[in-house]
Design goal:
9 helices; mainly alpha; 202 residues
Length: 202
């Protein structure tokens, strides 16, 4: 029932004009150990290599995902760069890359320079306070890889706080903990990306 409701919310959102559905992550004091761990997770900016197991896995995944983004991101080279970065950062954080695709779709509609009314920025709508909390002053949240690194690290942090409860972790990410609309929309979008991966041939 929840997945059906999420799918209906997602379908309804797709019929509306593009907009930012972002809320705002809420500032919460962090212990010194957690702050240090998150800072360490953010610090390594450049990936050492591919996150795919092999070349054929990369071709299959990118071939399945890329057509979905063609209308939003017409430049194929940039589109593939974004998809590789999403796969890498999601995998690095222990997240399903299609979950991150669904979150970006709901949060920013894949708009690199999206800004919410609360000031959240970029693809994953990261709040600027995170830069002061765990980053460095020159971290630009509109930079593709920096934004994805922050967003995936923050979602992983919330999942850890909530002991793996995705519904509550998504609520924290959006600043809407306790309300069902946002988590259901992201899960509906996630289901769409997973369905397409199963059904689009490379």
């Amino acid at each position: 029932m929840q997945s059906l409701k999420g799918a209906l919310l997602f379908a309804a959102a797709c019929l509306l004009p593009p907009q930012t559905w972002a809320g705002a992550q809420q500032y919460e004091p962090l212990s010194a150990s957690v702050q240090a761990a998150l800072s360490g997770a953010i610090a390594d900016k450049k990936p050492p290599g591919s996150s795919f197991k092999n070349y054929s896995e990369a071709v299959e995944w990118l071939s399945a995902m890329s057509p979905r983004l063609a209308k939003r991101i017409p430049n194929q080279e940039y589109r593939l760069e974004l998809l590789r970065a999403i796969h890498y950062e999601a995998t690095r954080a222990g997240l399903d890359p299609q979950l991150v695709l669904g979150l970006i779709q709901v949060e920013s509609g894949f708009r690199k320079y999206a800004v919410s009314s609360a000031g959240a920025r970029g693809y994953m709508q990261v709040m600027p306070f995170w830069v002061k909390l765990i980053g460095t002053p020159d971290d630009n949240l509109f930079h593709m890889r920096i934004n994805l690194r922050y967003g995936c690290t923050i979602l992983r942090h919330y999942l850890d706080i909530e002991k793996g409860n995705l519904f509550r972790a998504l609520g924290r990410y959006n600043g809407s903990l306790g309300r069902a609309e946002y988590p259901n929309m992201v899960r509906g979008a996630w289901d769409q990306w997973r369905f397409e991966k199963r059904n689009i041939a490379p």
